[in-house]
Input
Amino acid sequence: MSAAAGWIVPDWSAPPRVRAFSTTRPGGTSEGEYASLNLGLSSGDDPLRVGANRAIVRAHLPGDPVWMRQVHGTAVADLDAWMPGEVPEADAAAVSRPGRVAVVLTADCLPVVLARGDGARVAVAHAGWRGLSAGVLEATVAALGGDPGEAFAWLGPAIGPRAFEVGPEVREAFLDADGGAGGAFAPHGTGKYLADLYALARRRLARAGIARVDGGGRCTLSEPDALFSYRRAKASGRQGTFAWIDPAGQEAARA
Output
């Protein structure tokens, strides 16, 4: 299956049978602040329009994605054990079964796709500052299995380092676990900081043994035509980041 034009496809060296993409804002049916390809049912949008938007994306996938209830935690759903109708409460998912699609929804938080070096298992994580500081990426790497040194990671669209203003409690949450994380925070006014989610994620991935990390560089807040941002508009839509193993198992070009 191929991603639609304009969606964000990882530029990385993962095995070709590993497929992934992040949707962008245009191309859906939602209106107003939710215009137009909003995939979030809990965002306040018309559920019928969200359903229509999800159907648009479904046409580019090998199967129905497993939607989760995200809670800014560290739980990782094992989608190999998933049963139809279940809604996992988790902020990451891992899967080995070809054609079963993992997905996270974001609107400033960082989506991270992981793939084993042998292409036998993929995972996707929702890494806002709470989950990131609590260890959601480390938990996802553990659920991925295999040798982390052979794995690949890709950072999808998130709020950028020049836009993510946080208070001192956010900085302290990261410093408590990693004394070297201070370099990802730039002073910004009295008692405030600009936080670099991309840099923080790279540090966490490196500490978990993953050195091959691509992506980053987008900013949801500063790209209003392309991406949803909760900080820009509280009544915001959600983009989705999807990952799966190609059920055909063909070493063909990625989406």
About this structure: The longest helix spans residues 47-58. The CA atoms of residues 58 and 76 lie 23 Å apart. Residues 250-255 have pLDDT under 50 and may be disordered. The domain at 18-158+213-245 is CATH 3.60.140.10 (CNF1/YfiH-like putative cysteine hydrolases).
